[in-house]
Specification:
Layout lengths: L1 H27 L1 H19 L8 E21 L4 E21 L3
Antiparallel strand pairs: 1-2
């Protein structure tokens, strides 16, 4: 009977040691996994294209402002019998087109 209990205890110790070895191996390989994932991210990001650099950039600029102004002025002087009417309508469109280049020196 005592021998059966020893074998059960021995197999439990063997399982515990095996689990500790597997966990230790995973901890030791953690840096390799991390570097592999970082390498894949680096490759993916490099495939996207050039990154924006505020020191070296070119831009086509189109600036458009449109406005409408309507002015109506009515003046009545009842004692003199004078009536003044004024009406102004203005539609303004302003467009600027250009090219901008920024270089670092």
């Amino acid at each position: 009977m005592l021998q059966i209990l020893r074998k059960k205890g021995q197999s439990s110790v063997e399982y515990a040691v095996m689990i500790i070895v597997v966990i230790g191996a995973l901890i030791a390989m953690q840096n390799y996994f991390k570097r592999g994932v970082q390498g894949r991210w680096h490759t993916s990001v490099d495939g996207v294209g050039d990154q924006y650099d505020p020191m070296f950039t070119t831009a086509n600029i189109v600036h458009r402002v449109t406005g409408t102004t309507i002015t109506n002025l009515t003046t009545q002087n009842v004692a003199a019998g004078i009536v003044t009417l004024r009406g102004d309508n203005a539609i303004v469109t302003e467009t600027r087109t250009g090219f901008s280049r920024v270089d670092a020196e």
